[in-house]
Every structure is written in C-alpha cells, then in structure tokens.
C-alpha cells in the first residue's frame, strides 16, 4: 500500500540522514535541519511560523526549537513589533552547522533513491510533489 511504502521510505531517509550527519560529527535530526533551513531563509520566524514552513506539528515544534536553543544553534528574542511574540534566529554557530550539513544533505539524496536512475528520480519527485499537493489541497490543513 502507498502509505506503507511512504512510511518505509521516510524511515530509510531518516536513517541515511542521521548516519551521514553523525559520521560527519553532527547531532542533528532531519526535522531540526529543516527548522534551521526555515529560520535561515526567514530570520525572525516564531515557532508557529517555523512549524508552518516545514509542515510540522505546531504542538511539538517547541521541543525542536528547545533542542536547537540548547545546542546553541538558534537564539530567541522578544519581537520589537509585538512584545508577546518571540523571534527565532540562527546564531553564528547555527549558520556554520547549517552550511556544513547542507552539502551532506544534498549528496545523500541520491543515496536515498539509489535504486532509481536519474530519469526515474525526477519522475518520482514529480509524482511525490503532485501527490503531496493534491493531498494537502483535499485535506486543507496539511502543509
């Protein structure tokens, strides 16, 4: 079934990401990496904004941000525009870690889809995007 295959491919993808980043000396999950990417692309996002950008559960994004804070990769400050809001930005260490992991993440994409030739990879990605967009549109809630 499609759901089972998608879940298994996600498990494989997560395993490959963790193995390759740990081999390079980093302790970062794929979700933490995605959060760093979102913050890098749009400094000053709040937790809800990060969750929306990476299609992650708003209720659990706080734990992801807390772990990034403890690692020293991000800092949280009070917004100048809304004293109730907390903006999240990368620290210099966070930028450095992101910049070092980005090429690793890019290179492992071929490893995740190793059983496919380049044309099949492009077709797989096209179909996965189409399935994801149609599901998100039908559901109306999923990022």
Q: What attributes does this structure have?
A:
globular, Arc Repressor Mutant, subunit A, 143 residues, mainly alpha, two-stranded antiparallel ribbon
What is the topological layout?
Blueprint: H1 2-23, H2 30-41, H3 47-54, H4 61-71, E1 74-78, E2 86-90, H5 92-112, H6 118-139
Antiparallel strand pairs: 1-2
Helix pairs in contact: 1-5, 2-3, 2-4, 2-5
What does it look like?
It comes from Sedimentitalea todarodis. This is MarR family winged helix-turn-helix transcriptional regulator. Residues 2-133 form the HTH marR-type domain. Keywords: DNA-binding, Transcription, Transcription regulation. InterPro entries: HTH_MarR-typ, MarR/SlyA-like, Tscrpt_reg_MarR-type_CS, WH-like_DNA-bd_sf, WH_DNA-bd_sf. With 143 residues, the protein is mainly alpha-helical. It has a domain at 28-108: Arc Repressor Mutant, subunit A (Orthogonal Bundle), CATH 1.10.10. The chain has 6 helices and 2 strands; from the N terminus they run ααααββαα. It has a two-stranded antiparallel sheet with strand order 1-2. Helix 2 (30-41) crosses helix 3 (47-54). The longest helix is centred in the first third of the chain and has 22 residues, at 2-23. The chain is globular, with a radius of gyration of 17 Å. The mean pLDDT is 90.
């Amino acid at each position: 079934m499609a759901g089972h295959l998608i879940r298994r491919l996600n498990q494989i993808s997560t395993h490959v990401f963790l193995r390759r980043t740990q081999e390079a000396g980093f302790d970062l999950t794929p979700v933490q990496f995605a959060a760093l990417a979102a913050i890098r692309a749009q400094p000053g996002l709040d937790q809800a904004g990060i969750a929306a950008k990476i299609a992650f559960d708003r209720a659990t994004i706080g734990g992801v941000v807390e772990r990034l804070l403890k690692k020293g990769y991000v800092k949280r400050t009070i917004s100048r525009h809304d004293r109730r809001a907390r903006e999240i930005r990368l620290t210099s260490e966070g930028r450095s870690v992101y910049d070092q992991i980005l090429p690793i993440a890019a290179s492992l994409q071929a490893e995740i889809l190793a059983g496919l030739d380049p044309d099949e990879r492009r077709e797989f990605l096209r179909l996965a995007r189409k399935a994801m967009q149609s599901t998100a549109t039908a559901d109306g809630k999923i990022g």
